[in-house]
Amino acid sequence: MAETRKYISMEELKTHNKKGDLWISIQGRVLDVSDWANNHPGGELPLMSLAGQDATDAFIAYHPSYAWQLLDKFSNGYYLKDFTVSEASKDYRRLVYEFSKMNLFRDTGYGVFVSLFVMAMLCVFSVYGVVFCQGFGIHLLCGVFIGCLWIQSGWIGHDSGHYQIMPTPNLNRFVQILTGNCLTGLSMAWWKRNHNAHHIACNSLDYDPDLQHMPLFAVSSKFFHSLTSYFYDRKMVFNNVSRFLVSNQHWTFYPVMGFARINLLAQSLILLLSKRNVPYRKLELLGVVVFLTWYPLLLSFLPNWGERLAFFAASFMVTGIQHVQFCLNHFSSDVYVGPPTGHDWFEKQTSGSLNIQCSPWMDWFHGGLQFQIEHHLFPRLPHSQLRKVSPFVKDLCKKHGLPYNSATFLEANMMTLRTLRNAALQARDLSNSVPKNLVWEAFNNHG
Question: How far is CA 42 from CA 35, 155, 442, in A?
Fold first, then answer.
């Protein structure tokens, strides 16, 4: 005898949207993931952001086909009685299926091994130049090499966090810790937590940590209302201090990006030393300690403090190029306030992202970020495949009237500066009142 299905409405599903009572829907099937949230490999934030909603598109984007077999244990027996799928989502899911048949998600190519070789050479040249060579110019060049090493490590860490770049999961994890924690001091656990939240809530001012840089930067005047960050779990206070900093943000953007890595180092340590559930915490901490040992030790081989400061500045400022690249893809795109919504997840990813136009021979410079729209729609796709799928994504966006925004690297920089300048001019408007808060509150709102 066939089992009678039990149905609930979308409105009832929305009531199960908090810790301890967290339901989502996949293909109209309701799942209770309350107990699973803390053990979810992608962290609890993606589940919390889409709690009480249909999360099918996001699930398809982030999970390989075998993950469907794991859903049965979370079923609570309910189905959505008013479940519908938009035409854009249907076409998006067809594309995922077609790309899977073409084996695009598995074909990572040999680029990762080339990158690892280049990183090894940069490391060897830098250490040799500092320890065995004399001269300010050579030592400064070694600092540049270290910055380039960190940039390449960033691409490796980014890709290995989205999909398996090495033959086995354990080797993939080893490469993550080696190239991330050990060589750069950035925690892969921090990166995954931050980056997964960014992808799920792309360009949400209060849910996407990649837009939450108060009191230094604000890409929208909506930040002037002291929004609450649901990632950092604190209010991003807009007061006289933040007003002053934001008012000049179009001038301070590039200098701050030159040393933005310091903030990432701090954020990594804050997470690893916190009480949050951090996978492989001891291994992650050990990797950061390795970095905090070798980098100061390398500086100590330089003959004087002048050269040490120059080396430090060169390595960090070169890496600042990558931090600028991270901002170009989203700062000038559409933003919104509130949690992401499952029914238009595809649309939010396209409207919140900007591609960078470049020739194929320049792909190495952008590390795949030049196809930001494609990357956000297919985050498991190796960046070597993004150029290949770009025409399909363009056609899909055109069919459904969705934006497919792109600009040259120079144009994207100008668009970002224009966005920052517009917000800066609004911040200078004294008619925008600020809450009466203590000055120190501004310095406790980081991102």
Answer: 14, 19, 30
What SS3 state is found at 280? coil
Provide the 3-class DSSP secondary structure of residue 253. Answer: helix
DSSP code string of 7-34:
EE-HHHHHT-EETTEEEEEETTEEEE-T
Annotate 358-402 with DSSP letters as a single string.
--GGGHHHHTTGGGHHHHHH-TTS-GGGHHHHHHHHHHHHHHTT-
How far are the Cα atoms of 41, 79, 270 from residue 230, in angstroms, in the given order? 20, 29, 17
| Residue-wise pLDDT tens digits, 354-392 | 999 999 989 889 988 899 999 999 999 998 899 999 999
DSSP helix/strand/coil, 222: helix
If 0-12 CB within 10 Å is exposed, 13-18 middle and 19+ buried, where does residue 7 land? middle
Indicate the burial class of 74 (C-beta count within 10 angstroms; 0-12, 13-18, 19 or more).
middle
Q: What is the per-residue pLDDT for 433? A: 58
User: Quick one: pLDDT at residue 440?
Assistant: 36
| Strand, coil or helix: 86 | coil
pLDDT of residue 65: 85
Beta-sheet strands, E only, within 165-314: 228-229, 234-235
- For residue 302, what pLDDT is reported? 97
DSSP letter, residue 292: H
**Strand, coil or helix: what is 80?**
strand
